[in-house]
Amino acid sequence: MTQRLEPGTRIASRTLSTASGEQLAVPHATQLVHLQFRRFAGCPVCHLHLREVIRRAREIAAAGIIDVVFFHSSVGELREYAAELPRYVVADSELQWYREFGVESGARALLDPRAYGPILRAVFQTSLRVARGRDKLRFPRAENGRLGLPADFLIAPDQQLMAAKYGRHADDQWSVDELLALAGGHREQHSQSDVSLTEK
After folding, report:
1. Please, which residues bridge with residue 16 across strands?
2. Is residue 59 domain-resident?
3. CB burial class (10 A; 0-12, 13-18, 19+) of residue 80?
4. Has residue 151 been placed in a domain?
5. pTM of the entire predicted model
6. Pairing between strand 65-71 and 88-91?
7. Domain that holds residue 93
8. Phi and psi at residue 23, in whole multiples of 5°?
9. Contact (CB, 8 A) for 107 and 47
């Protein structure tokens, strides 16, 4: 099993190159960074979740969070879905970042019964979008396979890993509400620290 990261781990500074050619420093100097590790480009379950992330992007930004989404696909594969993805997307077809953060693959991604409902819902919604002309029928190549598991990491400006979640099936990731709650807890903790320092 790949080594998993625990909250409290110090995350070394690095600069990520996104699929669109932007550079992003992680950790960020002033904002929280949410690293989302998704599956392959075109994964219906991933895109169902990311549509919610995009819909609530203003809330996420207002909470002081930068969202970065990783796919184990090439830039060429991701380009096909660029209009449906958040701003910061990283193509990691070599699995460099997946290995570093201990993100795994496994048959349970699709075989866990808890994944059946989200998979069917994602396929249905994608089919509906195609039927309404809002999307086109595509057959993703699934570079690096279809058995990837999701994972989420929240990194503070001081380089500390605040929280981590390793998914147990294809749709096991933080909801937007869970992410916002984690960020709120971080703000509250720092506000209390600031008050304590002021009182000394």
Report:
1. 24
2. yes
3. middle
4. yes
5. 0.85
6. parallel
7. 14-167
8. -110, 140
9. no
pLDDT in tens, 115-169: 777 767 767 666 666 566 656 555 567 777 888 999 999 999 999 999 999 999 9
Residue with tokens 């509250």: 188
34 strand-pairing partners: 67, 154
Q: Is 30 exposed, middle or buried (0-12, 13-18, 19+ CB in 10 A)?
A: exposed
CATH, residue 34: 3.40.30.10
In a domain? residue 176: no
CA dist 187 and 30 (Å) reads 12
Domain count, the chain: 1
Distance CA 118, CA 20 (A): 29
pLDDT of residue 22: 94
Cross-strand partners of 67: 34
Q: How far is CA 144 from the centre of its chain?
A: 17
- The answer to whether residue 2 is domain-embedded is no
- CA 103 from chain centre, in angstroms, equals 12
